[in-house]
User: Fold this.
Amino acid sequence: MQDNTQLAAIDLGSNSFRLEIGSFKHEQLQRVEYLKETVRQGSGLDKDRHLSLDAMQRGWDCLARFSERLTGFKKKQVRVVATQTLREARNRDIFLARGEEILGFPIDVISGKEEARLIYLGVSHLLPQSPERRLVIDIGGRSTELILGKGYAAQTMESYRVGSVTWSMKYFANGEVSKEAFRQAEVAASAVLDEALTPYAKRHWDNAYGSSGTVGAIAEILVGLGHPAEYITRAGLTAIKESLQRAGRMEKVRLEGLKDDRRAVLCGGLSVLCALFDLLDIDALHVADGALRQGVLYDMVERKYNATDVRGSTVARMAITFKIDPLQAQRVTSIAQTLFEQVMPKQDMAMFESQSRKLSWAAQLHEIGSHISHSDYHKHGAYILENVDAVGFAQHELHRLGLLVLGHKGKLKKLGEHLSDSTFVCQLLALRLAVIACHARTNPDWSAVRLSLKNDNLTLQVPSNWIHIYPQSVHLLKQEMEAWQKSPWPFQFKI
Assistant:
C-alpha cells in the first residue's frame, strides 16, 4: 500500500454518525479529518422496531453531507458500518437502499460481536504496545460492548442491549433527574449486564479502558470538575450524579464540559457506566482515544493490503466446529474457483478477487448443515450462516454466503430475484458444477472443462470421452442443464 493513500470509515451509530478519514503513512494511519453529527436514530425506533421517517431523513441528510467530503474516493477506500439501531430496525432496508444511493458506497450492518471486535481493534491500535490484559468498554446509544483482549487481538467479545439513548428515554423521560430514577436505571442495567460478571470478572484483566461517546462525554465533564483527564473513578461518577440530581432537570444542569448534543442522553449513559463499575469492580477506567471507526480503518488495511483478512480464519474455525470434511471442501473450492475465473469478467481485479474469495468461503462451508442433518443439509447450512456470529463478516455478507449454500443444490426458483445478479449467478453455477464434479468425493480431472458466458448464455464444454469416463457426471450435468432452463439464464452442456 502506497504512503499517503487515504481511507475513510463511517460509523452509523444510534446516537451519532461519524466520518473518519485517515492517511496511510509508514504503516500507520494518521487522521486527516473527523466529522460527527448527532442524528439520534436510536430514538426513532417505535415499539414495533420500525424506524420513523423523520429519523431516516435525519440520517439521509447527514449522509448527503458526508458524501460531499468523499467525492473522488474509490469503493476500496471506504467502508460504512451500521450498528444496533439498524440491526434492530425491521424496515432498515428502506434506509439502507436510500443511504447507499446517497453515499455511493455499500452500508454493512454488522453484528454486535463484530462491532465489539472492531472497537477493540481501534482502541488497541491507539494505545502503547503492552503485554497487559485489557478490558474495553463502549457504551453506545442502544448497545454496550465489552471486550477482553491482549495486544491487537480481541479474545472475548459481547454486545448487550443497553445504551445511553434507550436508558435515557426509559428512565429519564422529559429530562427529569432524581436519585430514584438513577437507582432504577442502574438496577435495570445490572440485570441486563449481569451475565457479564463471570467472563469479564476482574481476575481476567489488568486495566480497563473506555471508548467513544458516553465515556468521552463523562471524562470531559470530570475535567471541568477538577478530576484527571486520563481516567474515570467511582468518586468522579458520584460527583456528576450528585450535580445532576441537585439540578433536578437536565435543562437546569450547568456543568463545564457538558456539550448540548450529550445533554439528552447523559443520564442514561452515566447509569450504565455506574452499573458496570459496580458489577465488574472497576476502580479506574482509562479514557481511550480509539473507537469503532478507527477499528474499521485498521481492518480495511489488514483485509486489503496485508493479506490478513480475519474472515478467512473465521471460515476455517466454522469448518472445524461443524466437522466439515476438509478434503471434500478443498476439492469443491478448487474447481469452483477455476470455473468462476473462466466465466467472470476481470476488468475490475479488486472486485473479481473479492467475489472469488467469497465463493471460496461458500465452497468451504457448503456442507456446514450436514452436522445437523443430511436431509436438506443445504437449508440447514443457509440457516446457520444467516444466524451465526461470524467474526469479520457483515450481515449482508453472511446472507450472501447463505444464499450460495442454499442454492448449491436443488431447484433455482427459491433464489428468486437474486438470479438477476450476474455475479451471483456466476458464483452459484460455479459452485453447483463443482459439487457435481466432486459427487463421488474423489479428485476428478476437470482440467479440459471450459465454462463460458456470452450474451447471458452459459455454456459448459467437456471432452467427448467423458461419456465413457464420467457417465454419472454427464447424467448430473444434463439434469443441471434442465434446472437452468427454467431460469433467466440458459445453461448449455456440450460434449
Q: What stands out?
A: The chain has a mean pLDDT of 91. The longest helix spans residues 326-343.
